[in-house]
Amino acid sequence: MTTDAESNPVRPDQAFRVIGMVIFVSSILLQGCTYQRSQRLAARYPDSNFSATKSEHAESEHFQATELAPGIEPNVEITRAEKEREVRVEHSQAERKEGERRPASAMPSLPAAPPADTGVPVTAASSEPVAAAAKPETTGETVIERPHSGVRDFPIVKIYFATDRKWTGKQQQPKWFSHEWNDANEHLTFGTCLVSIPESHTPGVVDKPSLWHFRLSENPRKDVIVRLPKRLEKSAFFKAMGSQIRRWKQKEIVVFIHGFNNTFDDAASRLGVLAYDMDFNGVPVLYSWCSEGGPFGWSPTAYVHDEDIITSTVRPLANFLADVARVGREAGIQRVSVVAHSLGNRALVGALQVLAQNEKSSLILDEVVMAAPDVRQTGFATDEWPRMHDPAKRLTLYASSDDKALIASKKAHEFPRLGEAGNALLLISGLDTVDASGCDFSLFGLNHSYFGGGKVLSDLRTLIEKGLPPLERKLREKRRKELSYWLLPALETNE
């Protein structure tokens, strides 16, 4: 005789929802308790270090403030920050004028306030001026922009973006853009944004506040933070991109297409970290499609949503890649590369097929990288591959047998995935297949983002910057059924 539990087993989607709801409620309670505790301590000990949390919050708010593009509606937080800054500048100006009327003998031995016309911001926590945002400067190989910061300067990565998401303008998750499809303006919104990298950054890691870190508020000292995006008209977007290409010495473009379970903020943060870790001094470009992401981003329903919506972004992505390549070539670009991760490879495969039909006269892309692709492997070599490889000079596949996300996808679909390694490793003539198994040893992770760190990141950087074949990148060749694949240096002893 069966019990109720045996006849009605808990479905995976129910379990995901229960776990997600517990985490969501716990995070809200923890955030409320932390805020109340900090307020009580600050009130009880006004001269203690607890009051420093106010300066951190002021620094974070000041960092988020940025100028909007022409024609874009103003933001409340920006207006408030600007008003506070104007009050501080007027106060400093009044003090300076008062000091000028005093005799020299009566002047106190204090540093002079900055002139009001310099535009130098002053933080709420300190009366000392802070360095204003400077123009991009080249230090070695990495292009860095300096943000307004109340404590120190943080490395900044400027990225260009195109997205088919709807704009929200919210600073809470999902930040800036939702997971809803944009029906207007040929489905795409264009713009730029800045991504700050914390001083405690570990290569390959996208540092974010979380319940596991016992903090939920963003801190530029500890977290990767995306500033308010500046939206641009399509013509202004490509004009700005061409202008930047002409100014910079490294004339390269990398377009990044994110995967499953990514908000716009997640994707922009990942690209910022990737460009920073690679010391990439070209133009990083994000293409963000309507992945759901968020606290329930790993649920089966969210995966179904992402699988369904990604087919709609194929043609907008194809048109965007063609425009980027055209504008880049006109501006003197030397290399145009595309890196797609996980489910984002489904959009890339479709877009390459569209480009193969419409752009037959020339190769428009230099390097196309498929990292951990969540694409059905069955039929790929005979159906998709012949219709997609023409627009690119070289296509590279990174696969791994340690990828738990693709193992789960294989079980759900009952078909092997293109990003699998081991006995399922796909070998095709003309495709550089790299076995990255063993290159990600995340203890509790899914080993799905291995392309962002270690040996894989080093190889990816060489591939994008120099366009070298695997043998010249010091990879070791292995053969199976008269076809070659390649091992990274970390696997050379794994015979």
Task: Write a brief caption for the model.
The chain has 495 residues and is of the alpha/beta class.
Question: Topology of this protein?
Answer:
Layout: H1 4-7, H2 12-44, H3 52-64, H4 76-101, E1 137-139, E2 142-144, E3 156-163, E4 165-167, E5 177-181, E6 189-196, E7 225-226, E8 230-232, H5 234-247, E9 252-257, H6 264-277, E10 283-288, H7 300-309, H8 314-330, E11 335-341, H9 344-358, E12 365-371, H10 380-384, E13 392-399, H11 404-413, E14 431-435, H12 454-466, E15 476-480, E16 483-487
Helix pairs in contact: 5-8, 8-9
Query: Based on the structure given, which CATH architecture is correct?
Result: 3-Layer(aba) Sandwich
Return the domain count: 1
Strand fraction: 15-25%
Query: What is the mean predicted local confidence, pLDDT?
Result: 75
What's the CATH H-level homologous superfamily?
Alpha/Beta hydrolase fold, catalytic domain
Instruction: Please give the largest β-sheet.
Output: 12 strands, mixed
Low-pLDDT ranges: 1-10, 27-87, 100-152, 491-495
Helicity, as a percent range:
25-40%
N-to-C SSE string, H for helix and E for strand: HHHHEEEEEEEEHEHEHHEHEHEHEHEE
Distance between the termini: 52 Å
Instruction: Output the CATH topology.
Output: Rossmann fold
**Strand runs, count:** 16
Oligomeric composition of the shown chains: single chain
Using the CA coordinates, give the radius of gyration: 25 Å
Please explain how this structure is put together.
- With 495 residues, this protein is an alpha/beta fold.
- The protein has a single domain (137-491), classed as 3-Layer(aba) Sandwich (Rossmann fold).
- The chain is 35% helix and 17% strand.
- It has 12 helices and 16 strands.
- It has helices at 4-7, 12-44, 52-64, 76-101, 234-247, 264-277, 300-309, 314-330, 344-358, 380-384, 404-413, 454-466; strands at residues 137-139, 142-144, 156-163, 165-167, 177-181, 189-196, 225-226, 230-232, 252-257, 283-288, 335-341, 365-371, 392-399, 431-435, 476-480, 483-487.
- Strands 3, 6, 7, 8, 9, 10, 11, 12, 13, 14, 15 and 16 form a 12-stranded mixed β-sheet that branches. Strands 1-2 form a two-stranded antiparallel ribbon. Strands 4-5 form a two-stranded antiparallel ribbon.
- Helix 10 links the parallel strand 12 (365-371) and strand 13.
- Helix 8 (314-330) packs across helix 9 (344-358).
- The model is unreliable at 1-10, 27-87, 100-152 and 491-495 (pLDDT under 50).
